[in-house]
Amino acid sequence: MSPEPEKSWPRWTRHAGVGVEFAAAVAGLALLGFWIDAHYDTGPWGLLIGAVLGLVGGTYNLVRQAMAAFERSNDPPPGNDSDEGRD
């Protein structure tokens, strides 16, 4: 069997996925902080720390994926040899 070709998703789906990951990181860690506050009576500190960690982690992931997309945009398209036909 030959290997399956890599699926090429439209750009908007990749960008939407990055946004959803960012929102999920912030919301997930904020909810975890809220749960910690409710169970350990720590006031708003669990929520605040969770939200800040979510923002930092989400931003890191956003920048990392944006840099990878920038690197991919600078690569020549596959099968395009610019040296062919030159003498």
SSE series: HH
Mean pLDDT, to the nearest integer, reads: 85
Percent of residues in helices comes to 55-70%
Q: What is the number of E strands? A: 0
Content-based structural category: mainly alpha
Question: How many separate domains?
Answer: 1
Strand fraction band?
under 5%
Radius of gyration: 21 Å
What is the end-to-end distance? 39 Å
Summed up, the helix count is 2
Instruction: Detail the poorly predicted runs.
Output: none
Structure explained in plain terms:
- With 87 residues, the protein is mainly alpha-helical.
- The protein has one domain (12-74).
- Helix content is 69%, strand content 0%.
- The protein has 2 helices and no strands.
- It has helices at residues 11-40, 45-74.
- The chain is elongated.
Question: How do the helices and strands line up, and which of them pair or pack?
Answer:
Elements lengths: L10 H30 L4 H30 L13
Helix pairs in contact: 1-2
Brief overview:
By secondary structure, the chain is mainly alpha-helical.
List keywords for this structure.
2 helices; 87 residues; mainly alpha; 0% strand
